Amino acid sequence: MPAVSVIMPAYNVEPYVAGAIRSALAQTYTDFELIVVDDGSRDGTADVVREAAGRDDRVRLVQQQNRGLAGARNTALRAARGDYFALLDSDDLWEPQFLAEQMAVLDARPDVDIVTGNGWYLDGPKHGQVARPWPDPRPDPCLASIIGDEWSVFIMSVVRRRVYTAIGPFDEEMRSNEDYDFWLRAAVAGFTFARNDRPLGHYRVRADSLSASNVRMLRGILHVYRKLRPLIVQRRYEMSILERQISRFETELLAAEARLALEIADFEAAREHLGALHARRGGAALGLARLLARWSPKTLKRMLRFRKSRTQTTPLTP
Question: Which of 37, 154, 228, 317 is deepest in the core (most CB within 10 A)?
Fold first, then answer.
């Protein structure tokens, strides 16, 4: 039986999945299985995985009708034989030492249930930048810090099976932020986190991460927080952090919805969102944006595009 089950959901990732599989098979730590769940892809994803499985019997292909990221991960978890689960998305990459270093942390610290890693951004405006601080001055994640800092846990994490046994699978009703929900549920249940801040992976930012997906992400975070609220109602300190985060993300959501409404020329919705945002934040700039949305929305849209182009072309700092 393999010690580690690598969990890889895959949906329409034919251009990327072979690289992700190669990065897993190149690990210096070799006692693992790689379970790739093709979640109803309409491209050649399954063929790529099938070819890899024919060359290396550690690769297992499972196919299903589309159920979303959480559903694909859950299928892999049910099929997994290892005592540890390592999450690798099908468009991301691991350095060869990734598994060895995370497992070394778990071997050295039997009290730790989840070790979270680090990596570099791959593609997108932050290409080549480290996704999390390195070295990281933050203490190991705990419930309060995971609530207050949504970047506290990195998706490239290794989890003991006992966590999954205790708290159950990813929430399949969620279409985003299901991993954040999983980490919070683990922390509420008392499981212990550790951090390995050395970058040992590459986290891909794809071109389809646009305003609509930003709105979806923010709505997902708020759903996670509202779902968490009854679980920590007796924990006053954590509840105070949670309420601040809810207020913060409600404001960020209004801003994102206003941007999206302008992009799709839904100027009535843009006025509503900007009005609600101005009521929360105040400020001359938002007041002007609100007026422009009412009297000259196309001008506001052009200003938004110009600002976005300036942001995208600004050189990245080293």
Answer: 37
